[in-house]
From TrEMBL:
Stretches with biased composition (Low complexity): 9-23
InterPro entries, A to Z: RibonucZ/Hydroxyglut_hydro (IPR036866)
Protein name, UniProt field: Metallo-beta-lactamase domain-containing protein
Stretches assigned to coiled coil: none
Top-level taxonomic group: Eukaryota
Segments for region (Disordered): 1-23
Residues making up the signal peptide according to the UniProt record: none
PANTHER family registered for this protein in UniProt: METALLO-HYDROLASE/OXIDOREDUCTASE SUPERFAMILY PROTEIN, METALLO-HYDROLASE_OXIDOREDUCTASE SUPERFAMILY PROTEIN
Length: 225
């Protein structure tokens, strides 16, 4: 796994290899897959406990990519391949984030494993194009389908059902992979630290993701509220 720890702020696009408890940790899992650990306010946790984070598994691809035609194509994962990867990650994952409905972002075998291993509290954010695969393995009430401009909140649940903070997820216009009349896939703007961040006076933070680096400038204009 390749990891990058950095602090993301509105005033700077640089990252820092800080070990601060407010660091965002991004772990690359090969292919299009990521594990994101997003820092959350410590709330009323005792100082002796580690700072909380919301962990998202993004576009899970845990097996070789064949797109349903293994005799014709096979994209091999060189290191992080097979059931053991999902089994090791699942205890850390709070929710799934899916950007596209294609196998290289929403692989049926990997989604099936996630459905088996993740707790019932885990929800999925995805474009409508992923519905066929997702609803084969997850109940519809656990899936949040977003179109560009729509948003939802993903929450961290602690022992006893206590609220552990949340992250706002807003869908943006992603790539159009198909005929021009087809709905675009999703990018996502994630925002957290709404109550001043982890430290007193610390600003809210955000992270943008679109696997093909597509975006519309007008979707990032300053919004009130």
């Amino acid at each position: 796994m390749q990891e990058a720890a950095g602090v993301v702020s509105p005033s700077s696009s640089s990252t820092s290899t800080s070990s601060s408890p407010s660091s965002l940790r991004l772990t690359f899992l090969e292919s299009n897959s990521w594990l994101w650990e997003i820092p959350l306010p410590p709330s009323s946790l005792p100082p002796s406990l580690p700072p909380p984070s919301l962990t998202l598994l993004v576009d899970p691809v845990m097996h070789d990519l064949t797109f349903g035609a293994p005799a014709l194509i096979r994209g091999k994962k060189k290191v992080l391949n097979g059931p053991a990867v999902m089994e090791s990650l699942a205890p850390r994952v709070d929710h799934l984030l899916i950007s596209q409905g294609f196998d290289d972002h929403c692989q049926p075998a990997s989604i099936a494993m996630a459905a088996r291993l993740l707790p019932p509290s885990a929800h999925i954010v995805a474009p409508q194009s992923a519905s066929k695969v997702l609803e084969t393995f997850f109940s519809p009430e656990r899936i949040h389908y977003l179109s560009p401009g729509e948003h939802c909140y993903l929450e961290k649940r602690r022992e006893g059902g206590r609220d552990g903070g949340r992250v706002k997820v807003t869908a943006t216009t992603g790539d159009t992979l198909g005929p021009p009349w087809q709905a675009p896939e999703n990018g996502y703007l994630l925002e957290w630290g709404e109550k001043g961040g982890r430290e007193e006076g610390e600003e809210p933070r955000s992270l943008y993701y679109e696997p093909h680096c597509r975006f519309k400038v007008e979707e990032f204009e300053v919004r009130e509220g």
